[in-house]
Amino acid sequence: MEEKKMEEKIYKSRRLGMPVLILVLVLYGAAIFYVVSVAISGGNDHSPLFILSILWMCLGWMLFMGLRVIRPQEAAVLTLFGKYVGTLKEPGFYFVNPFCTTFNPAADTKLNQSGDVDGGKKSIFKAKGINDEGAQAGGSKKISLKIMTLSNNRQKINDCLGNPVEIGIAVMWKVNDTAKAVFNVDNYKEYLSLQCDAALRNIVRIYPYDIAPGVDTTGDGMADEGSLRGSSEEVALRIRNEIQSRVEFAGLEVIEARITYLAYAPEIAAVMLQRQQASAIVDARKMIVDGAVGMVEMALERLNENGIVDLDEERKAAMVSNLLVVLCGNHDAQPVVNSGSLY
């Protein structure tokens, strides 16, 4: 079944908000003045002008419903009796059909992000533990075209080696097509949040937390050194592209995705810390041994070149053993002064 594609169209309306407002107020004043004048004069006026004045006082207020104020980086999706008629995007004071309504199903949805509205209602994301931090108030039905930052809760995901890691991302996004955002999905904010979670899981399971041998993260069949900790820029770019491919249908643009938190899950954090410490100790010992062997070799060569002392193989072996103990030991050596003969 072929899906009907929604295309954004700009509502063709001049910025007549102020002239219409002034005209309505003037006509109201004139109608009230005429009716009051007739009432004071005590006349029984049934003229068409009197009847029009009464009708205007009863129904003229409906024109106020057609006044719309659009601020910079704001949009209003207008529907007329259920039909999409256009979007107001340019800032200004407009007059539109009074029966047009502003439609935005995500107006009262609050996520842990900047620029959200606060309509005073509880979001379903409370159950998921996502904090509500609305920056605006009033439950406006307008759509913000500004760049916003979404930060979902940290997720516990298994990496490609099966180790559970906790990771959090911040996604900078904005609405590109208001018609797609409003009509193609039920709630574009919830849709974006869920797609961020799904894309994050798909990408994280490809990488190990740290560099591991024999792991292919690029899909070319060759092992590489990609990891969540060491390739954060590459991982963030792949997450961004994955999210963008999922939210294109909703008229959203993902500008950037960044990893804000990365750590092993608490149940294995202590063990992995010990593993890292052991690896660091082994590397440090290897470096110490390599340096000690070089120093011992240099000492023997200098003694032999300068002819300071003539050592046989047994004495050289003893000297090498003593120097290695001193250079590789964890504690300072305690010198022993030999007051007797060397032999």
- The H-and-E topology, N to C, reads as HHEEEEEEEEEHHHEHH
**Tally the helices: what do you get?**
7
For the largest beta-sheet, the strand count, sense and barrel status come to: 4 strands, antiparallel
Strand content: 15-25%
* Spatial separation of the terminal alpha carbons: 100 Å
Rg, Å, rounded: 38 Å
Identify low-pLDDT runs: 117-139
Q: Which shape, going by the Cα principal axes?
A: rod-shaped
What is the count of β-strands?
A: 10
Class based on secondary structure composition and strand pairing: alpha+beta
Helix content class = 25-40%
Give the overall average pLDDT. Answer: 81
Structure keywords:
single chain; 343 residues; alpha+beta; four-stranded antiparallel beta sheet; 7 helices
Can you characterise this structure?
The chain is built from seven helices and ten strands. The chain has helices at residues 17-41, 48-59, 178-183, 188-204, 232-247, 266-306, 313-328, and strands at 67-70, 74-80, 83-88, 92-95, 101-102, 143-144, 148-151, 155-158, 164-175, 252-264. The longest helix has 41 residues, at 266-306. Strand 8 and strand 9 (164-175) form a beta hairpin. Strands 2, 3, 5 and 6 form a four-stranded antiparallel β-sheet that branches. It is 39% helix and 17% strand. The termini are far apart. 21% of the residues are buried. By secondary structure, it is α+β, with helices and mostly antiparallel strands. The model is unreliable at 117-139 (pLDDT under 50).
Please sum up the structure shown.
With 343 residues, this protein is α+β, with helices and mostly antiparallel strands.
